[in-house]
Structure formats: C-alpha cells, structure tokens
Design brief:
There is one protein chain. About 30% of the residues lie in helices and about 20% in strands. It is α/β, with parallel strands linked by helices. The protein has one domain: Alpha/Beta hydrolase fold, catalytic domain (Rossmann fold, 3-Layer(aba) Sandwich). Strands 2-3-5-4-6-7-8-9-11 form a 9-stranded mixed beta sheet, with helices on both faces. The longest helix has 19 residues, at about 285-300. The radius of gyration is 18 Å and the shape is globular.
Length: about 325
C-alpha cells in the first residue's frame, strides 16, 4: 500500500473530561443494551463454514448483505465481537453487521475460538481465515476482494487491528497452502482497542488469552500486540475510545495513532466523552459510532483515499 501522511486526532491528556464517580450499578447507569432486530433491508445468510480444524471443529459466520444489491461488487467487512477473548460467538455483533449491510457493505459476523478452547494465536488465525474466506468467495456473494475491512470492539478490536497490522507475519497467518489468498485488509475500525498487550501483564484475562507469562515468553506478548507490527504497508485506522474507559485506558489508542504518525500512515482517533468501555452496545452511542465507522469505511473502501493531511484536534462525541 502506498503510505499516506497521518491524520491524527489527539489532544493533551489533561484536556479530556473525567467522569463523575458512579452511584448506580453499570447496567442501570447506562440503560438497556442494543438488541438486534432483523430488518427487511438486509438479507442474512447464516452458518457459512469458513474454517475447519482437527477433530471436526468448524467455524462459521453469518453474512449480512443489502437485500437490494447494486450491480457492482460491495466492500466487505469482517465483524469481530468482544468479550475478553472468552466470548467468540457470531451473534454478539449482529446489530453492527446489520447496520453495515444497510449502508451498502457485505458484513461477515464471525465466530472464533476463545481462550478457553485454544489460546493465542488461535483467534487471530481464525480472523485471518475468515478474511481469506471472504476473498475466496467474493465473486459468489458480490464482494470486492480488493476492498475489505474489519471492525471490532475490545477483544474484537484487538483482533481487528492485529489483522490490519500483521499481514504476512508467518506466525500469525497459519496458511494451509502457500497459494491461499492474502489476509491483508484495506481499512479497520477499533473500538476500545488494547493495542499493546505488554501494558496488561497483570491482567488475568490477558494472561489466559496468551497462556504464557511475560517472564517466560516476552516475545509472545510482543507478537500479540498490534502496535508492535506497525509499518508503512498497514491500512488506515479509525480508533474510537471513551476517555472514561476503566478497562482499556484510552492512552492505548493515543499510542497507536502516534505510532501510525511515525510510520506516515493515516489514522483517526475519536474520543467519546464519559462513555462506558463497551459504548457501542448502548443506544446513547450506537448510532453515532456506526455513523462515524460507516463514513470511514465509505471513504477508504468506496472512494479514493483522502490526501495527506496534518494532525487535527480531538473529535469528541
């Protein structure tokens, strides 16, 4: 990919508003979560097998398509749910996949192996397998195999951004044959992205995901960190993060955009004021999150990329 100058949206840490101390349980504080509701505008092709492993283990995806499709191929998006790498079902991000399909994308909401079933690098192997599946079956489903992206939240954001930054790294590809199609994507959106797992060495959930300690295998923690692989071949990123995130500090997003700037690649950072970690699950933030993400994918996958630009001020919504 031709390197583009960085468009970074950031600000001094002290300029961001801090949330007040919560007085209600999280569920009551943020209200009910978004519930997926099927729409006549979207066709869902369920339970498509995209990977097969030993002992009969198969992985499936649900493909969300606009019901009235244009005559030209659609950009494709891999949709990856969060859940501490312990929830890998394909239904958790159905609302996100459906909204993408309504907006003219082919969205594949995937399941992947959790840390309890198979630790790192199994999950990223699955995500890359799903990307290759989409590229292989692009003609069958009317997808543009040269315009693929990914979106994920939290653990799913980690996998989406690792997919974006690690194309061609053999330890993360798990190719069955040398002539398999590329797993490289052309754009990625990460919501509450843990970009440097080396900053979470005391977190049991991260240790479970990697299944090795940083003392025993520091190279595994580096390999699993998207920020470790940034170079000029990586696609543009949109990172969305709450300044009140108490699970993945928003400095993780700032560090990654800074690394992108150093590499001369375009990225955007949207800071969400006072929102919970998983803001995309709640009505107060879902529509704006999807609008921002869809605009980004439209720009990167449906039209000529933006020209080089100078860093801009933080965008808060």
């Amino acid at each position: 990919m031709t390197a583009a100058a960085m468009l970074m949206i950031s600000s001094p840490l002290g300029a961001l508003a801090q949330p007040s101390t919560p007085t209600l349980p999280p569920g009551d504080r943020w209200g009910p979560r978004i519930i997926y509701e099927p729409t006549e505008q979207v066709e869902v092709i369920s339970d498509l097998v995209y990977a097969q492993y030993e002992q009969g283990r198969t992985l499936k995806l649900d493909l969300y398509l606009p019901r009235h499709r244009p005559h030209h191929p659609l950009p494709g998006i891999i949709v990856i749910r969060g859940g501490s790498w312990k929830q890998g079902d394909k239904e958790g991000f159905a609302s996100i996949a459906s909204r993408l399909a309504e907006s003219g994308f082919a969205a594949a909401s995937i399941e992947y192996r959790t840390s309890q079933e198979a630790p790192f690098p199994a999950a990223i192997h699955d995500v890359k397998a799903a990307t290759r599946w989409m590229r292989t079956h692009a003609h069958q489903y009317g997808i543009d195999d040269q315009a693929l992206g990914a979106i994920g939240g939290s653990a799913g954001a980690h996998l989406a951004i690792l997919l974006a930054t690690s194309s061609g790294i053999s330890d993360l590809e798990a190719l069955a044959t040398p002539d398999e199609p590329s797993s490289q994507i052309q754009a990625a959106v990460g919501m509450a992205t843990p970009s440097a797992l080396t900053d979470f060495v005391e977190r049991p959930v991260v240790r479970d995901f990697l299944a090795v300690s940083p003392e025993q295998h520091p190279e595994a923690w580096i390999l699993a960190s998207p920020i470790s692989h940034v170079d000029q071949t990586d696609p543009p990123l949109l990172l969305l993060h709450s300044d009140a995130d108490d699970i993945v500090p928003y400095q993780q997003a700032i560090q990654l955009t800074q690394r992108y700037e150093e590499a001369g690649i375009r990225s955007e950072l949207g800071i969400i004021s006072g929102a919970p970690h998983a803001f995309w699950h709640f009505p107060a933030w879902f529509d704006k999150t999807m609008e921002r993400s869809i605009n980004f994918f439209n720009q990167e996958l449906k039209s000529t990329p933006m020209p080089a630009a100078k860093p801009q001020n933080t965008q808060v919504f």
